[in-house]
Specification:
605 residues, Diaminopimelate Epimerase, Chain A, domain 1, TIM Barrel, 3 domains, 23 helices, 21% strand, globular
Length: 605
């Protein structure tokens, strides 16, 4: 009867039946705006006869419908809003109400304006609003460091890269080391790795260390190698390779675990420098519309820094931190078990990052058969199968989700085998374990992701960055299981999308564009690179929102703008659902909001 009366009064959808005395108290409070009225009614509830309640309900409901039905402190008005619902269906809205940092309702402007009360109004001016985007695989401190070093990513030749290094070195003469990142000998069309002698030509007075774009190789000058004590007699470490000339002398490039031979000599950051690095990363993430990031491999020092920032309410994105490895830092951090929802939902430390192999560009990815363009090389497996199984078992045994970096088909198979063994021995499937990258997978192994309940944590921009060399490395036959997003989606595997920044740009619209078009920013190749593996735009948005949230055990609080979720959203300069797909990558973020608080606003032009 109550539902019928409320529908008649124009309040359809609000008549969740409660005990009459509670309904009367709520109605009286809203009708009179008096807490005392509600309290008096509750105190006298036992004196109410059922017929008295029913006789008075129409009057009270009419009063309820005439005043704001819900509390809100922010009214987001006049927007072209999009969100997925929890089932993944795209929904539209014109306005949104927010209270205490969470979404209360979305709907029409007319329907919500009367319920906004005294809430602050954000006039969207008809601009497009999306849920905040989540990068499911990135490196927060790495981004901050890269922003403060020489950026070699745009360089198209060795000479151009050397000029960038020289300018950076000249501008930072007080720095003990010259550092940079982003070089790619494939883009330079060099046909080989660069050498220490070439780097000496622009920096010889102090050590220089430049990481390759994928982070799986480093380029040192002679001063850096001398400081690290590296010479002809230095052995390749397990899981690593020192590039050498015909005489066996180190040439200056160190692949995978061999990088540590040089990197360990670089002085660590102090707390003041680390804070500057985190500040730079957070500012850049907010600028590009990232409201959440899964940080794939952190140490205990970074976790402590994140906690200090959370305590001081200085985090402007939600961080899902993955402990790097299962050694000393894991033992220290795992004493009290996984950390969830720290700082009001801004920090989680409930996952572990492991490595199975290197990267394709530096030929460190572990393949089942030799590289097509290096027939004596099958890449590098970092661990034996027993070692990988033991590490996964240690982490899952303490309740931590595990994400394993696996690029090549041999590495993916090893990791799949290890998860199967761990599940058979001790369980852990419910932890939503992940394979990070899942870049080249034997087609026979792809169904095993679904059978084992593994998440494929994949980075769309890797495909468009790698398309200049991937087929050379793999040959055409192996491409069937490479960058195979659609194949994973069609079998029901959850695909969580990221960028792997600073390996790639942190801009998530680059990722959305690559996922949909499989083309570079010049529109090449015209039909897309292996376009049958592309995603639809709703699928791509889901991978950067709802499914990224799911991969972080947060789909009940993040990833959509449904009631009860955190009000993490962005305003952008175009409607990506009606605009040409070719323009997705050039989308500009105008404002970024996290928990109903603005963390970025683009200055007016």
């Amino acid at each position: 009867m109550l539902a019928g009366i409320m529908e008649t009064a124009g309040c359809a959808g609000t008549a969740a039946l409660l005990p009459p005395e509670v309904e009367i108290a709520m109605l009286a409070q809203r009708a009179s705006h008096s807490r005392a009225c509600a309290t008096a009614l509750l105190h006298n509830q036992r004196g109410f006869h059922a017929m008295t309640v029913l006789r008075r309900l129409p009057v009270l409901i009419a009063a309820w419908c005439a005043v704001p039905a819900i509390a809100a402190d922010l009214f987001v008005d006049h927007v072209n809003g999009y969100t997925l619902d929890s089932a993944g269906k795209l929904q539209r809205f014109e306005a949104m109400l927010v209270e205490d940092g969470k979404v209360v309702a979305t709907g029409s402007r007319a329907g919500l304006a009367g319920r906004a009360g005294e809430a602050e109004v954000l006039d969207g001016k008809g601009r497009t609003l999306l849920p905040g985007l989540i990068d499911a695989h990135a490196h927060v401190m790495g981004l901050g460091i890269a922003l403060r070093q020489a950026d070699l990513m745009p360089t198209k030749s060795l000479d151009e890269a050397l000029a960038v290094v020289k300018r950076h070195a000249d501008a930072h003469r007080d720095a003990g080391w010259v550092q940079g990142r982003g070089w790619n000998q494939v883009n330079w069309k060099l046909g080989r790795f660069p050498t220490a002698r070439e780097l000496d030509a622009v920096v010889s007075d102090r050590p220089a260390w430049l990481e390759r774009v994928d982070g799986h190789a480093g380029w040192a000058n002679s001063a850096a190698m001398k400081l690290a004590g590296i010479d002809k007699d230095t052995k390749d470490p397990p899981g690593g390779r020192i590039e050498r000339d015909a005489g066996g002398n180190p040439t200056g490039v160190f692949v995978d675990h061999a990088m540590e031979l040089v990197a360990k000599t670089i002085p660590p950051m102090d707390e003041k420098e680390a804070a500057k690095v985190l500040d730079a990363a957070l500012a850049e993430m907010a600028r590009v519309g990232l409201t959440g990031v899964h940080d794939a491999g952190v140490d205990a020092g970074s976790v402590a820094l994140f906690k200090r920032y959370a305590d001081a309410h200085k985090l402007t994105a939600r961080l899902y931190a993955m402990i790097g490895g299962t050694e000393a830092d894991f033992d220290r951090l795992a004493v009290d078990g996984p950390l969830s929802g720290y700082g009001g939902g801004f920090l989680d430390v409930r996952s572990v990052k492991l490595y199975a192999d290197g990267a394709l560009g530096s030929r460190g990815a572990a393949l089942l058969a030799p590289y097509s363009d290096d027939v004596h090389n099958k890449g590098i497996l970092f661990h034996t199968p027993d070692e990988m199984t033991a590490m996964i078992a240690k982490a899952t045994g303490k309740g931590y989700q595990v994400g394993v970096h696996a690029i090549g088909d041999a590495a993916n198979r090893e990791v799949l085998d290890s998860f199967a063994k761990v599940y058979a021995a001790q369980g852990g499937k419910d932890l939503r374990n992940r394979i990070e990258h899942a870049q080249v997978v034997d087609p026979k192994d792809i169904p095993r992701f679904r059978a084992l309940g593994l998440i494929a944590s994949m980075q769309p921009t890797h495909a468009t960055s790698d398309m200049n060399m991937a087929e050379d490395r793999l040959g055409k036959a192996r491409m069937k299981g490479a960058y195979a997003w659609r194949t994973f989606l069609e079998q029901g595997t959850v695909v969580a999308a990221g960028s792997d920044f600073p390996v790639e740009s942190p801009n998530p619209f680059y990722g959305l564009y690559s996922a949909v078009t499989r083309r570079d920013h010049d529109g090449k190749p015209p039909g897309g690179w292996y376009p049958q593996q592309g995603m639809t735009l709703p699928q791509a948005l889901r991978a950067f929102t709802l499914d990224a949230a799911y991969a972080g055990h947060a789909e009940k609080t993040l990833g959509t703008l449904e009631p009860g979720r955190f009000a993490d959203f962005i305003l952008i300069d175009r409607d990506i659902f009606t605009d040409e797909p070719a323009r997705i990558w050039s989308t500009v973020v105008l404002e970024t909001w996290v928990g109903g608080k603005q963390v970025f606003a683009r200055p007016p032009r």
